[in-house]
Structure formats: structure tokens, C-alpha cells
Amino acid sequence: MRLPITAWASITHRASGVFIFVGMAVLIWALDASLRSPESFYSLQQCLSAPLAKIVIWAVLAGLIYHTVAGVRHLIMDIGIGESLEGGVLGARLVFALSAVLMVLAGVWIW
Amino acid sequence: MVTAVTSFGRSGVSDWLVQRVSGVILLAYFLFIGYVVLTGVDYLSWKALFAQTWVRIFSLMALLSLAAHAWIGLWSVLTDYLTERLMGKTGTVLRITLQLLIDITIFVYVVWGVQILWGY
Fold it and tell me: What is the model's pTM?
């Protein structure tokens, strides 16, 4: 699909929102295990060191990172900054660039 | 045409505002949790953190913000794509069914979270 970058930024914001709503189950489950008992904290640590678990956690964090950065862009535009066409395109580019960097950093932290 | 009976605040302006306030609260909470986790935690320090009243209040605030934010956000997505205009009667049935499942999930998240915060 050929769409302007602003449309991609918007669709990705929606898709990441739907995704992290589901992913929230994983995060709440992890919070549950981390606070239930010393044993469950330890087994959570073991579980999260598995390659598949790392991918799942990274995916949820990546969704959270994009959704957060794109959300902050909304707040900035709400106070009247970057509402022009050029501003919108620049904002969308910045959102993609900044979240890509943060996603890589999250990956470095996880692995 | 989609009516507003399933929206969070029954008003677009209210939903707009709640979406922003809850977003800011969630941003603050994720930055807080991110900072704590990045500085390194073991079971005892993690447990001690969540034993503090202000952390529990902040966590519940984030959880309730999540509930409102997800309701408003997913309602917006559902009412844009699963509509009578796009799919006829099926759209309405599918949308209301999914809305119900989403709301049940939100309810489970909230109660589960409360149990984690005050139950252990």
C-alpha cells in the first residue's frame, strides 16, 4: 500500500495499541510471578532467560515503545506544535526514528 | 452510523480528554517502572518497593488509566472498521461481541492487578 508516512504512523499507533492490550496479559502475569513469592520470582527469571520468552518480552516492549513515542507526538500536536503538513511529516519521521533507536536499545538490554 | 452507547464516557470530548490524561499517567508509570528495572532489582528490593503505599496507589492509578485508555482506544478502532456501513449487520454483531470480550478482559486485568498489589 502506498500511503503517506503520516498514515503509516497513525496505523502503526493503532496496531501497536491493539497488540500491547493483548501483551499486557504477559506483563501482568510477569508482575504476578515477580511478587508472589521468592520461588516464583526465581522461576520467572529462569523463564525469561529462554530465547522465546525474550522475543515475546521484546515484542511487547517494542509495541509499548512505539505506542508511547507516537502518543507523546499526539500530546505535542495537541498543544499546537507541528500541526502543519510539513510538521506532521517531520513528526512521523521523528517518531519512527526515535522508536527504532529505543527498540534496538531494548533489544540490547534484553540480550 | 455508530451510536455512542458503547463508548467510555458517552461523549467524544470526554473520551478525548480521558485518553490524554490516562496516557500521561501511563507514560509516567512506565518511565518509573523502566527506571527501577534498569537499575537492577532482586526479589527483596522489588517486594519492598511494592509494599509501599504510594507505589500501590500509583500502580492502581496506572491500572485504572490502562482500563480507560484501552476502552477508548479499542472502541475507536472497532467503530472505525467493524461498522454496518462496511459489513452490514455482521459489522454490528461482530463489533458488539468484540467490545464485550474486550471489556471483560479489561475487568479481569483490573481485578488481577488489585490482587497482585494487595493480595501477596
Answer: 0.94
